[in-house]
Design a protein that fits this description.
The complex is a heterodimer of chains A (310) and B (323). With 310 residues, chain A is an alpha/beta fold. In chain A, 39% of the residues lie in helices and 28% in strands. Chain A folds into two domains: 221 residues, Rossmann fold (3-Layer(aba) Sandwich); 61 residues, Alpha-Beta Plaits (2-Layer Sandwich). Chain A has eleven helices and 14 strands. Chain A has a six-stranded mixed beta sheet with strand order 6-7-8-3-9-10, with helices on both faces. A four-stranded antiparallel beta sheet of chain A has the order 2-1-4-5, with helices on one face. A four-stranded antiparallel beta sheet of chain A has the order 12-13-11-14, with helices on one face. The longest helix of chain A has 16 residues. Chain A is globular, with a radius of gyration of 24 Å. Chain A starts with a strand and ends with a helix. With 323 residues, chain B is mainly alpha-helical. Chain B has one domain. Chain B contains 15 helices and no strands. In chain B, helix 9 packs antiparallel against helix 11 and helix 11 crosses helix 12. The two termini of chain B are 40 Å apart. Classes of the chains: A alpha/beta (310), B mainly alpha (323). At the A-B interface, helix 2, helix 3, helix 4, helix 5 and helix 6 of A face helix 1, helix 7 and helix 8 of B.
Chain lengths: 310, 323
Amino acid sequence: MHSIIHLQNITKDYGRFRALSDVNLDVFAGVTGLLGPNGAGKSTLIKVLLGLVRTTSGKGLVLGQDVSRQAGNIRARVGYMPEDDCYMHGLSGIESVQVAARLSCLPKTEGLRRGHEILDFCGVGQERYRNVETYSTGMRQKLRFAMSIVHDPELLILDEPTSGLDPEERDAMLNRIRILSQKFGKSIILCTHILPDVKVVCEHVAILAAGRVRLAAPLADVLRSPDPYITVQVQGAAEQFAGQLTSLGLNVAVKGISHIEVAGAADAVSRMVWSAAAKANVGIQNLTPSQSSLEEVFLKAVREDRNANS
Amino acid sequence: MPIHNLGYREWDGERESGSSRWTVVAGIGIRRAWQSMWLRRIAFVVWAPPLLYAVLIFVFEQFLGNESGMQPRDFARMLGLLLPAEAMPGVMLVLQNVDSATAQELLSTVRPVFWKAVILQLQRSQCIGLVFVVGLVAPSLISQDVRSRAFLLYFSRPLTRLQYIMGKFATVAAFLLVTTTLPQLLLYLFAVLLSPDISVIAYTWDLPLRAVLASVTMIIPTSLLALMLSSLTVETRFATFGWFAIWIFGLAAYVVMERLSGDTSELILHLSFLYLLFGDLSAKILGIPLLTSHFEIELAFVVAMSVICFAVIFHRVSAPLRA
């Protein structure tokens, strides 16, 4: 698969403080979750990707453009939604989006037309004519999202897009992200602390800690348990079914009246489970492969880093 | 959901050239500044002096039209009412040389001197208007962006820091061009229209160019100075205070130094008060002779001030991105 972002040994120092240390990262098309504790270097990494800060060493390509020499080209093709509560003072919502469009070189009238279209998409109604200073946190969040996509970027970098949103708005925001990714083929980097959001929309995940990339892999691989098993919920005699499975050479643990855990990866053992159920004359109500939780993976990556440092 | 909501759509229209992005920044600034009722009032008031000077030119031209055999000394007396005192001895030198000239030669010499004097005086009065216009427009331009963290919204676009500063500068400059330069050019046009024939342009053609140059010499450093103050704080009121303090303390320093120590160098006096500094530069650029002139030093001071202000603005605008 062709990577849209390729970072090679990127190091960034602020004076004596090393914010990024030898970052090697490939980001592929789709939605990538960028995770990391506070101070991990996520914001610095975003600034490097946008060419807003010069790297101390290393090479980086975003959409095939060099981050240190073609920053302007990158920023024309990338949409960025900052985490900070930032806005353009004294402008209304629609004016802000129009200005964002015009700064990305859309003509004046087209910027206005496009601005209205995008605000409709983002669920901003008549409030668009109000001054942004009167907006709630959630409204500003939607406005920043609209400003980041108004110029139809190929790559979107969203920094905490769902923080401060109520559950309904959060779902709507995640839905928009999904639409942009799946229907319009946009590549998206989602920086967030809300791990359920990552599970819902991301296809890849990268975990950053203390300026280093600790993990970068497809989400499905990350969630795959190191000791896989499947949980089978049966209707009927679970003990007899367990004996049948054991006789097939499977490692089985009975977990209550109707639940049985069978060791092994789902694709390897599920066929044997179904045939054993047929022989034991029991019905299978549910068959669930085991998963690592993203929280566990995240904490493990961060703790490994702390242990290495201590 | 609006009934016309078509959902997200891709956009593949023709994009504009990137070189005009600074005009977007300037457009925001101008629109925002013009919302201030005080600015609209002051912009209206600063157009009053040009009207007064237009009346003066009208009276002057009527007076010349009478061919009353006016002598250089009479002109000098008339100019004395208009010109700054320090310019008078130099003007007298010019007028003494035309003692023996014919009436037509006298007019062709005296008229430009009179017009220059009027434009210089207009510029000096507009300089006071400039202080108020800049004081209302510039202080919020960068400080509000720092406060509302708008830098990330600007610079995540293909907008360079130089274009951003150019946009902010253009905002202030646009107001100053309308309130200082444009009145001077219109005054010149008015004077030409009142003249007996169009040949007057032949010996005054350089006056509008000199007026524009003198205005620019005033607009660039003052705009950069005010923007620098704006970039140094997140509180607009501090930048406003700093701007007016520079002028008020400059005036106070000038008065105190002049009264308390009579032997203070004139150069130091003029460098301490921007009003006098720009007055000197304007007089020189307009071609009005001053007895004591430190044009080179004063110009170097203004250039150095502009460069320092620009460097500070550039540094301050870059700071939030480095954090």
